[in-house]
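Ticket #4471: complex job returned nothing on first submit. Input attached below:
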Amino acid sequence: MKYAYYPGCSLESSAKEYDMSIRAVFNHLGIELVEIEDWHCCGATSAHMTDELLSVALPVYNILWAQKNGLDIIAPCAACFSVSKTADWRIKNENDIREKIENLFGDKYTGKVKINHSLEVLVQDYGIEKLKELRKVEFKEMRVTPYYGCLLIRPPEIKNFDDPEDPKMLEELITVMGGKPIRTRYRTVCCGGSTAITTPDIAQKLSYEILNNAKEQGAECIVVTCPLCQSNLDLNQGDIESKYGVTLNLPVLYFSQLLGVSLGLDPGELGLDKNVVEPWELLSRFIDVNVREYR
Amino acid sequence: MKYYLSKSVIESDFSKEVARRSKENILNCYQCGKCSAGCPVNYRMDYQPSEIMRMLQLGMMEQVLNSNTIWLCISCETCTTRCPRENDPARVMDVLRSIYLEEYRKRKVEQTNFFKRLWTRGLKDALNLGSRWDVRTFNAVFLENIKRHGRSFEPPLIGGFNMGTFYFLRNVLKAPVMIFKRKLHFLPKRIKGVDKIREMLKKIEEMKEKGL
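Support reply: We reran it on our side without changes. The output follows.
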C-alpha cells in the first residue's frame, strides 16, 4: 500500500509529535508514505473565511501532484483533510466552480484522487483485525475518551466519514488496543478551533466543558485526531485549570501515539515527550519507561 | 427589538445575491431553530443563526452585515448537519463574510450610528475593535504569511496578529513551553514553488475584478 502524504503546516511545527507518530506507525505496518513534493499550505480556516474561490483553489496544486503520480492522499491534519475534501467535492458537483478552476489550472483536474484521513486508512483500509494481531501491549482497563472534533465528521455529504452524530471509529480502535472507551456527549462538540488565537475565551469555555465532562466520567486520557483540537485541550489545560478552578491532569494523545505504544514502538519515536501534559504516569502502568530519558 | 422595514429593504436584491452566491435556498428556512440550538458559540452572538436566516429572507442587510455573528461562526458545521431543509448556514456565513469584505473595500457598508453601537455593544465594539477586527486581522496575516513563504510560519503569524490587535503580549507565556519541546521554529522554510502560488492569487484577484 502506497499513499501520497500531505502533512500540513501544523505537523511541521506545533504538532510535530503527530507527524512523528504517524510516520513511525505506518512504517511499522509496512504502508509507504511519499511526501508530496513542495506541498504548500491548504489555507485552513482563513481561506474559506475570506473568499470561496481561494479556499477551493489552494489545495488543487497538491492534489494535482498526487494525481500525476497515481496515488491517493493521506492528510492526518483534520483541517487539511476537510479543506481538500470540500474543494474536491465542490469542483465535482458545482459547475461554476469547476469552470473557474479550469480557467486557473487548465483542464488537468480529473477528480480521481481519493483524499483520506489517517484514521480511516488504519481502521478501514488496513483493517482493524490485523491491528489486533500485531498488538504487543494491551491497555487493560485504561479508560480512554475518544474526541472527534468537527471537521472530520461534518458535513456528512462531503466527508463520508462515519456517522456525524454518533461516530464509532475511535471507539473500535480503543477496544482493539484493549482499553475501555468512555463515550461522552461532548465527543463531537467543537473545541473552539482557531478561536484559541482570535477570541481565546470561547476556546477556553468549550475546551473546559469537554475536559471537565471527560474527567467527571472517569476518563484517564483523551485521544484526538486533529492538531488544533490537541493544542486547545493540551496547551491550554493549565489556563483552564486556573480559570475555572479545577484539577484536570488529563493527557491528550494523538490516536497514532496510543496505537504506536500498543504496537510496541519506542515512546521517543512517537514524540510522547512533546505533549505538554505528560503521559508518563499513565503509560508507566503498561510499559517500562525510563522517564529521565525524556525530560 | 423592533425593526421598521421599508418596502425598499424587503424588495432589495440582497437575499437573492446571498442565495445565488451560496447556492442555498434561503427562502426555504422555516425557523425550526435547530441551527441556533446546536451552535457552540450561540451564547456570544448578538443574532442567532436562525435569526440571521430570517433577516436574510427579509433583506435586512445593515443588521446582518454589522452583526458579530458572522465573525464568531467557527464553521463547525453542526448547523449544516442538523438542518431539516438541507441548508448550509455555515456556507451562508462564509458568503456574508466575503460580501462584508468586498463592500468594506468599496466603503459601501452602512454602519449603525457610533453612539448606538456604544450603547448596545460597549466601547471596544463601537470602535470596531471587537471580534470582527480580531478575526479579520488574523485571516489577513495568515494569508499574507502563505503568500510570503508558501507554508504557515508561526513567529510572524503570531507576532503580526498581536501587533495588529494591539495586544502585544498575548499568548506570550506559551512560547517557552513550545520552544522547550522543540515545537516552534524560528527559521523560515520557503517552498520552491512559492511563485506559483503568488501567481494563482493574483489571477484570482483579477477574476474577481472582472466580476467572474
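Chain B has a mean pLDDT of 85. Closing as resolved unless it happens again.
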